[in-house]
Queue: 4 jobs
Job 1
Amino acid sequence: MKTHLAFILCMITAFASGGCLSTSLDQIDTRPVDLAKPPAMTETPTLGSEDGFSPIPQEIDLTEYSYKIKGERAVSSFLPEGIQDLSLEQAVLSALRRNRSLLVEKFNPVIAGTFVETEIAVFDPVFSAQGSVESFRDRSLDNIAARFFSIDGSRSLIRAGVAKRFQTGTDVSLDLTLSSRSDDASERSDESRAGLNLTQALLRNAGVGVNLVGIRRAQTAALASSYDLRGFTEGLVAAVEDAYWDYALAVRQVEIFQESFELAQRQLNNIRARIQVGQIAETEESVADAELALREQQLIDARSARERARLNLLRLLNPPSAEGWDRQITLSEDTVIPEVILGSVFEHEALAIKLRPDLNEARLQARRGELETVQTANGLLPRLDLFINIGKTGYSQSFGNSFNDLSGPGYDFTAGLDFEFPKDNRAAMALDRRARASYQQSLQSIENLKQLISLDVRNGLLEVERSLQQIVASASRRTLQEEVARAETVRFQVGTTTALDVARVQRDLLESRINEVEAIVNYRQALTNLYLLDGTLLLRRGIQGPGAEEVVLLR
């Protein structure tokens, strides 16, 4: 026996030493950065990859939470030298398939759904098994001889069972136990016992409603995560459309500034020619030079703005190319006025109340609060459990015979009540008040959000109407400025005005042309924003995905 004890002590010491040595964390690899050395090329492209875009691990399926355009339209192939003739629909579809921010958000509903499985698993049956072997030596006193003597023996135990919790608040377990004992003072004895144990909650945690709160709460959170994903997707689509038209505006502005720069160059050449023949004074050349320098500055800024708009659009589209940021984009849609028939403000407001993802998510959060009140109200009750334990026992000198003896007279039966109730029950009462107050707060938050949504929709509709009127006004102003510029140029040719006056008129014409294009782009972006505010952007673009239904909150 001493040998056994020494072996056990050695094992304990070894495990303790190994545990102490393994408590240190793995070291994080770091390396210094030398600014004097040229940086290495990025190993992994930050936009796409040459072999296609497939970063999703195979074991995780995100198809259920993907958004796609009806009809399974194909995205046009992206040429190595750039994206040619990119339409607005292709840009949106590319972002839905490849945008990495959206890919990150898609995992949230998957993660939320795992909590539903966790709550359902509470009611799954649990199988258990246990086996043990014990060797012992007892010391006993011999009263006649007045001395101690030792008794060596052994015990063994095998236990197996299954336990299950039911939605009614009932815990049931079945177990089978086999035990054996032998020692120097008595013969070997084996015992078999089959038992049934039942515990039923009578007050607290009794009933299906309160026991399913965890599952329903997890399901509500998972559904709310889907609406959160829809809200993110709508925001992404709106950002893509805004970026598309920002880039279209930037391209058109570069064209306008380029034409203006070339016009200023021709005017400067014309002035120099007229100075040489003595038609105008030499002072007019400095005015033309300054105007040309101004147009060049504007052209430089416009080109830089176009490049920023291109990069922003590329970031959202994430095309499958290792070149990434160097891709050029050619748009197939021009800055023209779309023909749109808008509904009344009440129609857009009614759609927003039904479809806005943030409002539906708020309704689901209120539903979770309502479920919380069900649980806290049940927690006000005292705990009163009924328990019943029934067992049949067989005895023999071998396991096999002890099984046969289970039909014999040996049995045990226990029944009773288990009661518990804290004095004043203040903790449960505080939890219940907090849950009810939070639920009422969430209901008031919904009403407040409805009011804010109505305000957003009305302001969005006003912006659409304003930008549409600005299109007409800016076009009229541009037409008039062209006539003024033409007249001022004629007057300069005949010597009745100066180059400075012509420059001022040309600036006004340039501004009017820019304003006209900006008005059209602002109108398109105002329409996108209106559809985003009333929750119909994805539906109007024919994009299908989760979170398209209205959440009805029952009170």
Note: The chain has twelve helices and ten strands.
Job 2
Amino acid sequence: MTAAVLSPARPQAGSPWMVAAIVVVPTFMEVLDTTIAVVALRYIAGGLSATVDDGEWVLTSYLAANAIILPITGWLSAHLGRRNYFLLSIAVFTLSSALCGMATSLGQLILFRVIQGLAGGGLQPSSQAVLLDTFPAERQGMAMTMFGLAALIAPVIGPTLGGWITDQYSWRWVFLINVPIGILALGACYAKLRDPDYLVAQRLELKKRPFQFDGIGLSLLVIVMVSWEVMLSKGQEWDWLSDPSWRVQILAILFVVGLVVLVFWELRHRSPVVNFRPLRERNFAACCIIIFFAYAALYGASTSLPALLQSLFGYDALDAGLVMSPGGFVAVLAMPIIARMLGRGTDARWLIAVGLFVMTAGNYWVSQMNLDVSPGEIIWPRVVLIAGLAICFAPANVAAYLYTPKELRGAAVGLLSLLRNEGGSVGTSLAQTFNERRDQFHTLRLGEYLDPFNAAAQSFIANARAFFLQYTADPVASQQFAWQELANLRGQQASSLAYFDTFWIFAAMTFALLILVPFMKRSVAEKGAHLSSE
């Protein structure tokens, strides 16, 4: 038995709260970077003399690189040491952020975003693993609350902050703002973080064995995640499975076949680069599904609502952000309350169920609205949606890891982080696709009876023609303007119905997740909690 195993536990250099405050900063910075650049795409494309479609590779390249690294963070932490890997990730992320801000061409920016995504992938799992090891079992709820404040608030405020920075300064500051924060986080983590004894022992044990690198597994992972991210990003633009160039179909085949082969290979490899074994534990598997679809609903709603407000309500980016921002404040208030309930022995399963039901109510509330609502009437459904996710986030993370053995915790954290991020990507893509398809559907349906033989349409045309005649004194032009006004009204109503249908879909999605809760094991984070997989 190694000395590391025999030695007493090596605590972090500082109180758990200090450690938590330090490690969530890089997490917040990285999660923010997945959304903050969205609103700056047009400015980035214009500043680098590129088209908006080409500029989208700035997002796709980051997400693909991020997705590749997330599931292998457990392997990297085991071989490099979690503290070393975390510090390396912060340093490279900070440096690549500076390079992104100084890029002089789109090609350079995409390259630096790939590096930034590879480095950023290690921040979320490492910080979450540090929190799980720093806080005792009865305080796991509070630990996940600290992590949740970063993982939940960042995507909520990201688009608003990105729009404000771009409008007031330059799109380059969307990336350069990470530099001073990253330097401070690197110094604090270097001074305060230590690896726990079980990780030290695990690393010493790995050093005694012949080094085995799962190159085939890594290659399969790259194929799967790149195919997946490009398909999600470009699927609607290329018309999904109807793509005449067969790009989407090829990507779908590569993803499905690659994923099947990857799982088959990794489950039989002695030292897998992606460890799928944590998914055998039913609590962890259920929480992975819940977090994936909950974040799909969050990101889908978070992209649909600003688009709805700006396209149909006439809001600018700042006003849309102000309507959405109260949800973030509610999350900050709700999560400590949930953490206290978990600390007092409340079963995490029932909090997850309540949170999913509240999320359902928030999305359904929006789906029943119309174009005559005031800003205040839009704020409250958004508040309800974010409150629901705040209620279920920490309990879902507690339930996920409660029965996961420590030796599999690194792999489990990486998998859950991957699914959380990919849920956001799926939600964004689903919202865009479903909104465009439903817009076409409602445009056709609303136009079925808008013809010269419809009495209501004739009355509208007559009134509109009389109105325009006062300004043009041209009967022919007035008639054309009247029909154009009717077409504009039809388009506006069709677009609004499409947005509201999208929120209805997300409400149905979160409601369907409730079926998983009864199949989970009792999940109470209490002192001396016994971890098992029974």
Note: Confidence is low (pLDDT under 50) at residues 1-11, 530-534.
Job 3
Amino acid sequence: MLNQTISTVTDRIIERSSGPRQAYLERMRNAASKGPARAHLSCSGQAHAFAAAGPDQGALAEGAAPNLGIVTAYNDMLSAHQPFEHYPGILRDAARSVGATAQVAGGVPAMCDGVTQGEAGMELSLFSRDAIAMAAGIALSHNTFDAVNFLGVCDKIVPGLVIAAQAFGHLPAVFMPAGPMTSGLPNDEKAKVRQQFATGEVGRDALMKAEMASYHGPGTCTFYGTANTNQMLMELMGLHLPGASFVNPGTDLRDALTAEGARRALSLSALGNDYTPVCDILDERAFVNGIVGLHATGGSTNLLIHLIAMARAGGILLDWQDFSDLSAVVPLLARVYPNGLADVNHFHAAGGLGTLIASLLDAGLLHPDTLTVAGKGLAHYTRDPKLIDGELVWEPGAAETLNDRILRPVSDPFQATGGLSRLTGKLGTAVMKVSAVAPEHRVVEAPVRVFSDQGAVKAAFQAGELTGDVIIVVRFQGPKANGMPELHSLTPILSVLQGRGQKVALVTDGRMSGALGKIPAAIHVCPEALDGGPIARLADGDVLRVDAEAGRLDILTDGVFDRPAATADLSAYQAGTGRELFSLFRQSVGAADAGATVFGG
């Protein structure tokens, strides 16, 4: 039996979305009826499209065999994307093995939030999602493809590729991960060194040694931030092959899954008998399943923005109340850093997504009958891929967790509700990741210190000003102000304050992703300061109450709304490191609770 709240929230989303969803599906049906344009291209156009195809030129010119488009986010600076260098060759060979062809349709940019933390480049990070969607749209605009493989992993890349996949939703698509790097220095040890560096106990040489021991090879970072949350979502929403997310790069199983991803995408094209376009996979039920997975695993808060933007691209309207209502009935089943000490490799070994999905299905917390690239029904995703005698097969996954300190069943969760909380009150609306916040830290009532950038917070800390219980407010960090950068460089400072016994919280219209951990942080505050939201009226000494248990974000000081909204000099955010190229984005971007997207606000 499907849980009643799951059913109610799904029905509410379907009703709310009926108009735009129907219009979207009509566009996709129309696009599907026209088919790929390569058969209709002029001889000159076809010659251009096939000129470099080598041995595949004949098959492409005949137009009888399906053609696979590859959209890749490869670069060799991002460890998570470096393995994609060799994927096109694997995909071409796999396509040829079934009488098809494959071409790299185009590349999309992919930036690393870890590299840009605290730097100007971070102000382009959120906007890169929509730029990626546009770039993928250009790649597929030649309209010569019957199916698509999307190669991407990290923070804004997968959401951007999903938005593009929705725009070309009449095509089937399989998303291709690269897998996590092998485990290195434990994340809690790395965090300890970061805090020691923040207080001057160790020098930069010790910090660099710890960081290099943690981030040490090809593959996704192993903590459970946005990148690995993306991978979970692609399984729960049916766009990965089952069990593909957390297989390490450079292994035979990884290569076998890559080749099968090409064959599977081609088998779902309109030229065969199992036509399964993206627009049919990503329906309202798939997005609800994704939100359930987000709560059950304690995933990144970034997805509260990205899922809304991804859904809107397919005519589906989500809001934060949907997330909140689902969080109330979905228990937290995983403890992966920063929610615990384990990394995603440990999670995968404990049973991983297959065991988690099986438990959620048994409890009626997932729609079981959604379409996926593996076939109808999420039961496919309770099975594990194996390479036996050189053949890729799927076998039943672990029926029970192999380590209950990392992964638990619905009957014995880490906590009864999900890992994310929606906060509302006089200050507006915000969200908080609570899965790693100890119960005693989930309610903070304290005077505020107000800052307009994270550099000022660091200066106040170094000057010894942040004493006593305090709520740090960092405003003018919203999407319209400066692209809503993540403020992770504050994490060591806030951790030190909390470690001293101070009650501490962060309130910001900026972002903190999934890696803040034990510090209560009300983020994505809407309306943002630049829009004159209440956060722009706060002053040092005002008392706030941040209450993740009750879902409240309240101003306790009288007279705050009688003040004029503060202003800030944002000129420093307008140019340099490419920021001037994104001025149009800052002018047209919507609010965080509407997906912080430039596509229709």
Note: The radius of gyration is 24 Å.
Job 4
Amino acid sequence: MNDFSVLIGGKAGEGLNKAGQILAHLMGRLGYRVYMYYDYPSLIRGGHNFSVIRGSEQKIAGHRAGMDIVLALNQDTVDFHRDKILPGGLLIYDAYYAKGEGMAIPLKQIIEQNKAPSITANSGIIGAFCKAVGIEWGILEEVLHRDIPPKVLEINLAVARGGFDAAQEHQKLHDLGRSALPFITGNEAIGLGLIQGGLTTWVAYPMTPSSSLLHFLAEMSDKVGLKVIHPENEIAVMNMALGFAAAGERVGVGTSGGGFCLMSEGLSLAGMSETPIVIMMGQRTGPSTGLPTYTGQTEYHFLRHAGQGEFSRFIVAPGDANEAFYWSTVALNLAWKFQIPAFILTDKTLSEGGYSFTIDEIRKVPVEDSPRWDGTLPYRRYAFTESGVSPLTEYGREKAVVKVNGYYHDPRGITTEDPGIVAPMQEKLLRKLQGLDQELVSYDTVNQSGSSGAVVALVCWGSNKGVCQEVAEHLGLRMVQPVVLWPFPVDSLRRALEGTSRVILVENNATGQLAAMMRQYGFAVHEQIHKYDGRPFTVEELENRVKGVLP
């Protein structure tokens, strides 16, 4: 079987995300390339949670609508998802909490026999899954040894064995005979990319979908010498981070739309004071609180225009874990090289989705920094330069007076309202964008796949990359994905669309934010496909909608 999907569902608090990761590791152990989508409401306990884990012979970054196996820990999972089971598929369910047509597993009895906590039911149903698809016990044992904490490992092994013994084989999931790839979330990829880029400090207040990046970096902090700080609110986050950056730390912050609203004044301070900073902005469905645990692509224009006044910035929107790793390193470099804010624009689908990670395919990025002060006195923090980037030094350097000023200032950092200085200083802030644009010529700012000679282009950004790639390949279309969103990659996008006569835009928003930007720069957009209910496209859904607008 070259493409296989399994869904595991239950209540919040039952470890569904962790169970999904274990299933992903099991499929990866058989040589499949894996993608995981995690769906959950904004509740601590209760509500319906589920994970969809898809394995394929090919690299993937999206999930399908149909399921080969549904693992149900409660009746809601049966009721909500039984219609998704493909012909020849199977429902495996907890015999005590659910009823249905399929394979009943006496999980409550197994748990009671082993005097185990109820949360181990997910290990039991994973054991049953392995037996049903022909995964040997030794492989499951190996994966559980790696994924389960030692203090609860033995009890989970016992319940998993009980589920394994209670099941029957249904269909064989073949070992593809390939090495397993690392399986990581988009947020973990961002964190690793930032660490590779020399990140020294991370400051964040928890806000889905950026929270797991805060947790991941906190876990990594002792291993890599990273400072991770959780202040009292997002205003404090931004202001504290700017203080670290001014002192010479390579610093980043993480947030979502609501939190970033509180950071926008600090963003303007970064622009005026030419203080480098990286902001990871995880989009979700809005406005206001919206759907806090669901996905959207609604903050592109917000980031493009956030903050009072005019200053240069960089915005990148990676589409999968590989791109998240690579472009996070690049964003950190560019922030420090040009002394500007740099945004990593992601969303819930990418941040919390899980991917097979192929680091060997990722281009190496050397760590770069701002031009440094050569010691010539007097030191001018905001010296006028052709590039707009002034030589940098930090506090404490002998004879260097370093002023960080949010007011208009002269090259020394002294506040001024002199029009003869204000105008050149404003031009200096914007001149960096020209240099940034030239710098990006050496990067692949727009990706292209599918049929290169196709006259119909499917254009997307961010986490829609994976499903658009599959649909484009299946329908013989060209897939075009701008990765850098600002400065807008006009020349690269024009080359990617050369020879096309029809452009279809795919976005997870209601207004077509990328479409509007393309039209602003003279690109034709013939059709738009929007989805704004908080859920990502499945491959089947997008394919049907694309067929509906094709000539």
Note: Residues 183-361 form a domain with the Rossmann fold fold (CATH 3.40.50.970).
